[in-house]
Amino acid sequence: MLRFLVCLFACLVSISAHAWPNGSSAPAAGQASSFLDLGDELPTGLREVISGKAVSITVDELVDALDRHGMPLIAELDYAERAWYAQRGMKPARLLVFGNPRTVVALVNEEKRLGLELPLRFMVYEDEAGHTRITWNAPSWLSGRHDVYGPAVLLERLDAILEEVVEEVATPIEAAPAPAPRRVDPIEERERRRNILTAAVERW
Hints:
Elements: H1 2-17, E1 36-37, E2 46-51, H2 55-68, E3 73-78, H3 79-85, E4 93-98, H4 101-110, E5 120-126, E6 132-137, H5 141-146, H6 152-169, H7 186-203
Antiparallel strand pairs: 1-2, 2-6, 3-4, 4-5, 5-6
């Protein structure tokens, strides 16, 4: 029994010593930043930030920011809506598929397996704590995953663009204003989304 307790204590000490990856220290309380970056806590290749806004507002602003950066919305999947049809409860969760047609075609032409990853995607969802999270694959990580390094510079540029887009949208939780209540007509909202997707398809 004593040996077991000693081993357990050693494990706990080891875990606390490695609680923050790459030897980094825990962030200071109230540390200011444009958004909370959770990249070090995620599996390799994933990036994630916490938005200080509701899922619906975050999605709308992401779509606008992507369009400004020449990466229009191609498709959108509302998982919570599908869960409702399946008579299952789910917190808001929406997948955005987007990209510049020329860039996507050029990359897939370089390596067909990149078609499994492209066009790029944002997963926007509400976690158990009520925070909105934006998660995506880092484009530069795709080079190593698919062993294709020809378009590495372009993929790194996409990294920077996605970070710019997210930083434009995400708000520090401490400074995030309470979202103003709004009533959205479901028919008008569906028509608005259809127009966005139609315009994106025409660009392709």
